[in-house]
Amino acid sequence: MRTPHRLALTALVAVLALAGCSGGARTDDSAPATASPSSPSLSSPSPPPASRPPAPPPPSATTETLTPTAPPPPTSSTTPTPPPDPVMPALHSRTYEQARAELARAGVSTARLKPGAQHKDVTVPRDHDGWYICDTSPRPGAPVTAATTVTVRLARDFSDCTTSFNGYLHQENDPAHTP
Questions:
Q1: Helix (H) or strand (E) holding 104
Q2: Is the pTM of this model over 0.70?
Q3: pLDDT digits over 75-130, tens only?
Q4: Which residues make Cβ contacts (< 8 Å) with residue 117, sequence separation at least 6?
Q5: Is 99 exposed, middle or buried, given 0-12, 13-18 or 19+ CB atoms closer than 10 A?
Q6: Distant-in-sequence, close-in-space partners of 158: CB < 8 Å, separation ≥ 6
């Protein structure tokens, strides 16, 4: 009983081989189908059609050759798209000096950088390059336009960023504090 299985397997291999040899040529869908794909037959497949498209004629001496031409130069009516606005980098826990360098790398003008104190009872000195950034406005990831003012809240020590008594660094400076 193994002979019909071998014959079916051989016929299947032959059909697949002929299908692979067709070179990917598309067939005319308007021609009637000889066999449906759902019912394979064990008979040998019909040979592929003998008609092929005609080959292009060889170039003759009278054929003129085309020379490539350069594309036309761009016209002034097309305006280049402006680059997207830079985004606010994450500056938390960096020093003011590091923040200025990071903003410059991100394409944000440092002239629009405004320092401020994290606490109401602290005054930021003129030389605050070593102070730490506790908070920023706008938030990290927000677009920064040319008109945006970047405000950073500074503290002398980074540990002071999380210390606050109703906005004051020292509890005794809080008017709501009762000793």
A1: helix 96-106
A2: no
A3: 666 677 877 889 999 999 999 999 999 999 998 989 989 999 999 999 999 999 99
A4: 123, 124, 153, 154, 155
A5: buried
A6: 93, 132
